[in-house]
Amino acid sequence: HGRSTPPRRHHPTLHSTYRAGATIGTARPPTLTIHTLAPLRSAHLTSRHFSRRLHRYPKLKLLSSNMAQKMASTIAKVVGRPTWQQTMLRIKDPKKSIPFYTDIMGMTIIDTLDFPQWNFKLWFLTTLPEGEKYSLTPGTKEAHDYMWSIEGTALELTWNYGTEKDPSKKYHPGNQDNDGFGHVAFNTDDVYASCDKLEKAGVTFKKKPDEGRMKGIAFAYDPDGYWVEIVKRSEANKIPNYFNFSQTMMRIKDPSKSIPFYEAFGMTVVRQKNYGDFSNFFLASSSNVDTSIDYSSLSDDEAKSKLSMMFGPILELTHNHGTEKDDDFKHNNGNEEGREGMGHIGFLVDDVYTACDSIRELGYGFKKEPDGGSMKGLAFAYDPDGYSLEIIKRGGIEFGDKRVETP
């Protein structure tokens, strides 16, 4: 991905992370409570901000005022301007999945990383503004430089060589008992017309727009069975793209831990909705946030409208009420043996080592420290639910992939 160190012949850490989702590097410590977190020098949130959040987010009421003030003094920003850069899904057959996301959902392949020494390949796709031409060749140094410097978010598709030939091989799409990953989503002007178009292209559905309780939204299946939500924009003809990549949804156990954690990564809660037995929190990365807007002051209708017109994706965190009270409850994170599907989300930072110093203070541990394994300068941190967060140097590092020559 481009640091000025010579290519390495063997990167077992990278290989096993993508191929099997194995636990690597530092073992995950027990989840820490707010009382055990050491105070940090640079406070991220004031007690006033936390008091406002307690009023706005009912499910954070399990924190007392004193605990909120203490949390405000202990949660710090992750240094190095973290930006949400990727969501990784494993795929069985790129000849099916790549056309689905490019030809049908309108995404563009901006880069590839090929590792024949470990028998896997990565594709990175994103929604570019309609009419914008992408002239770089995926797999080249120039494409790498572009990919590891984007302000937006890419969908990373990971293919292990040969899986397409194995009739028994199937990735786990989530949405079963205790699964954490829920879906990705795309926004569009007209959900009904879009679903007609998808159906004519051979796409099948978990839910069509008029099925179920929630009318006007749909869930399609991608070739691996991952759910793809189709969401209506609040205003038509404002975003020229037929579809734009708009969400990654993950379930969380305790919002009083997860929301501050992702805010420490520079994300902003742009909408929160309590549905009675569950709540959704929608977070946007800094590049997708209008800094002139105080999102906490918006009505739900206003926040929903703003959210639907964002061009870049948001991270949707879904909390099923009561899970925070069950000490034994844990979400599957997509990397367990036999349940591999979504692998991780990833953030770019200016410097991995200094960023990891501040991430370490959050108290949830690492799957791989920056100097763990043979791939130096790349880290995988855990969030409060045990999801993996890849921490990558902005500009990239040298991965040792098989490069494509620039035409």
Structure overview:
- The protein has helices at residues 12-19, 47-56, 65-74, 94-104, 141-147, 191-200, 255-264, 300-308, 352-362, and strands at residues 83-91, 108-115, 120-126, 154-160, 181-188, 205-207, 218-221, 227-232, 244-252, 268-274, 278-284, 314-320, 342-349, 366-368, 379-382, 388-393.
- The model is unreliable at 1-73 (pLDDT under 50).
- It is 21% helix and 25% strand.
- The longest helix is centred in the first third of the chain and has 11 residues, at 94-104.
- An 8-stranded mixed β-sheet has the order 2-3-4-1-13-16-15-14, sandwiched between helices. Strands 6-7-8-5-9-12-11-10 form an 8-stranded mixed β-sheet, with helices on both faces.
- The relative contact order is 0.22.
- With 407 residues, it is α+β, with helices and mostly antiparallel strands.
- The protein starts with 11 loop residues before the first helix and ends in a 14-residue tail after the last strand.
